[in-house]
Design goal:
- Keywords: Membrane, Transmembrane, Transmembrane helix.
- By secondary structure, the protein is of the alpha/beta class.
- It has a domain of 106 residues.
- Helix content is 47%, strand content 12%.
- β3 and β4 form a beta hairpin.
- It is elongated, with a radius of gyration of 22 Å.
- The two termini are 32 Å apart.
């Protein structure tokens, strides 16, 4: 039974630790990359945001950007904003981080062209959904389970770091137990 509890504890620790590592990497400006190659370059909550700086428009708008047009044509329900950056790339603001969003962006665009910013608290911009059906609830817009799964297993470096931290924790615990067992005097 002890082994079952260890496995459950390991799963719970990883379920919390890996998403925290991903969001901390974003906050540190490291822009962790999804398995598809697309980086998560920011997150935006009500009072806390870590996202790329927008470029300033210095001249008249140029030709339509094929990357922006391609993202708009995707018609993803989580995407609510596409913002050009000063370096010529584009960030996609999305309420949910579904695996299919990253996979579709990765199959259509180069990772240097597009990055994702997670903004789960952004309200419904267009409550009248028109031909897309009825307005969606907060839980339907943010898709918390899909977002958690993406944060948990979608970013390989953070997943690996989480596994190493948990393994290091178990190793330290085993060494302390062994050392405590050696320090006890033998009963005669």
């Amino acid at each position: 039974m002890n082994r079952v509890w260890r496995i459950a504890l390991t799963a719970l620790v990883l379920a919390f630790l890996v998403p925290v590592l991903v969001l901390a990497s974003v906050a540190a400006g490291l822009a962790p990359r999804h398995w598809s190659g697309i980086p998560l370059s920011g997150w935006d909550l009500a009072l806390i945001d870590f996202k790329p700086e927008q470029g300033r428009l210095t001249g008249p708008p140029g030709q339509p950007d094929p990357v922006v047009d391609g993202i708009i044509a995707m018609d993803d329900p989580g995407v609510f904003m596409v913002v050009p950056l000063h370096d010529g790339s584009v960030y996609v603001a999305s309420r949910s981080l579904r695996p299919s969003l990253f996979l579709e962006l990765g199959s259509r665009f180069d990772a240097d062209q597009v990055s994702v910013v997670w903004s789960p608290l952004m309200g419904d911009i267009n409550p009248d959904a028109g031909d897309r059906g009825p307005a969606r609830t907060f839980w339907q817009r943010t898709e918390p389970l899909a977002t958690w799964v993406t944060l948990m297993v979608g970013f390989p470096w953070q997943l690996g770091a989480g596994l190493l931290l948990v393994a290091a924790g178990y190793t330290l615990r085993a060494r302390r137990r062994a050392k405590a067992g050696d320090a006890e005097p033998a009963a005669s």
